[in-house]
Amino acid sequence: MALKSSVFRITLQVADLDRHVYQDFPLTIARHPSETEARMMLRVLAFALHADERLEFGRGISTEDDPDLSVQTLDGQIDTWIALGAPDPERLRKACGRSEHVVLYAYGDKALPVWWRKNEPVLNRLDKLHIAQISDQDMHALASACQTGMELQCTISEGEALLSWSDGSMTVAPTVIKNTGDQ
Fold it and tell me: InterPro entries given for it (predicted)?
C-alpha cells in the first residue's frame, strides 16, 4: 500500500514592505511522503516571498516538469516559475523557455557549492534565472516551525523575511547566487 501525502493547513499573513503586498493566504499543502518538513516549509517561505493572488503550488515533488510554485498570467501562461533544491540545469533551461521569470531557492550548504561550480557556465547563460540560497541552519529552523493548523506571519523588508508563529520566530535572508537584474 502506497503512503499518502500529509495535508497541512496554514494561515499565512504576509506583509511585504518591498512589494507593498499585505494579505492573508489560507494555504492547504500536501506533503509527499518523500518530502521533508524543511522542504515543505521552504515552499511556504517561497510562497510568502512571491505572494500573489495568482500564485499556486505545483502538482508535487514527483512531477518533474512542473514548478514547485508558479504565477500564471490571465491567459494561462506561466509568468514566474519557482523551483527548489538543485535541479538539473536542463530542467531550468526548459523552465526559462516556458516562463518569463525563473526563481530557484537552492539549499544544501555542502552540496550546493559543488553543484554551482559544475553548472555555473550553463546557468549563467540563462538570463531569466535568479538563484538564491537558503542556508542549512534556516532549513532546520523552518522544519522546527512546521505544524498543521499553524498561523504564520511573514514580514518582508529589504529581501529578508521575518517569520513568526505561536512559539517562535526566525529571520531568513536568502543569499543571492545569480541575479537576473529584475528580482
Answer: Restrct_endonuc-II-like, YaeQ, YaeQ_sf
Q: Domain coordinates of the chain in residue numbers? A: 6-178
Q: Quick check: 160 and 151 in contact, CB under 8 A?
A: no
Q: Which CATH class is domain 6-178?
A: alpha beta
Question: Sheet harboring 21-31: ordered strands across?
Answer: 21-31, 6-16, 150-157, 160-165, 168-172
DSSP 50-116: T--TTEEE-S-TT-TTS-SEEEE-TTS-EEEEEEES---HHHHHHHHHHEEEEEEEEE-TTHHHHHH
N-terminal to C-terminal alpha carbon distance within the chain: 44
pLDDT tens-digit series, residues 16-66: 999 999 999 999 998 888 899 999 999 999 999 999 999 999 876 656 678
Q: Above pLDDT 70, what percent of the chain?
A: 95
Cα distance between residue 81 and residue 72, in whole Å? 9
Nine-digit cell at 122? 550553463
pTM: 0.93
**Closest by alpha carbon to 172, among 47, 1, 83?**
47
Q: Mind listing the pLDDT tens digit for each residue in 129-160?
A: 999 999 999 999 999 999 889 999 999 999 99
Cell digits of residue 54: 495568482
**What is the dihedral sign for C-alpha 178, 125, 74, 9?**
negative
